[in-house]
Predict the structure.
Amino acid sequence: MSKIMGKLQSVFVIMNFILIAASIIALPIGARHRRNDGRYIFATTENLTTWPTGWAFMLSWLSPIWTIGAFDSCLHLSEEAAHPTKAVPFGILMSIGSCWLFGFIIMIVLAATINPDLDSVVSSKFGQPMAQIYFDAIGKNGTLGLMSLLFIVQFLMGLSILVAASRQAWAFSRDGALPFSSFFRRISQRFGYIPLRTVWGCALLAAILGLLCLIDAAAAQALFSLAVAGNNLAWLLPIFARVVWGQKKFKPGPFYTGDMFSVPIAWTAIIFLVFGILLSMFPVGGPDPTPQSMNYTVVINSAVWFGALIYYFIDARKWFTGPKITIASEDLTEEQQVAIREEGLEVKGTDGEEVGKVTNTERERLSDEGTSV
């Protein structure tokens, strides 16, 4: 099953590029008699909210932040990848890079072919501004064709995210971090050694959350913003923990930006991720939202985050000691062994020997060498 899904991922990527190419080609041709000029594309701003234009511009960052939000999916499949220490970082860079490049091209095409009356586009009778852009440029039949392809691509994207989410949920279950971990950590041999239970568990949870979109637009917007805030927090915490507490234990892999750039890049990422979390909490329409236009992301996120904290302090802290660590003792420096042992972790190498034990002699020697223990 894993091999089949791997091949299907290639099909999904190809279909994405087909949709991108079709839009880039069809829209300019269909709107050839009324294309907007370069000044409109690159130098015109319109603010349809009641926020100041400067802050409305900042809120517009939510769209690209959300668009690239699944670039870490390949990370969750790293245990099934060949040469993951090189392939996964390369996959992340390729994901972000391709989103940036093709997203920039698509935005130019959309700005060149959109109806300058943006109110009519946003309030389209179709309920989807993208459908209105297609309709204005290529008519009914072309719109049906490209929107159908877009729906298919979105469904396939959902499958890809489900695969990544199921692997992530399985990894948490393997470490005993989730409720009912003993149930979800089991691997299905019949279907090719995949975490079948976490696949169905994630699918069921996604379906339940998806029902919230049927309530109204505010609930749907909160779910989309939840993807931004939740992902940003998940990326922020390990980066922050590494630069603040984990430098002594950090072991660079084959893909490394170097001692000079690694920490500054990490702090830049932390600042940007905090910025993204704050953005996702703001009502996009203006500073005086109604119950219908309110951004309820802060409510949903608070429920998830504080619920997880309560679960940890009431029960999980009694038995959860962190991720299971499996490392070769020869790959650790003495300083890393000291740092790990100082946190009270019982770490054994692949040979079964305990590593990281600090003796008084070692403590004195490392202290003389200027190493803090």
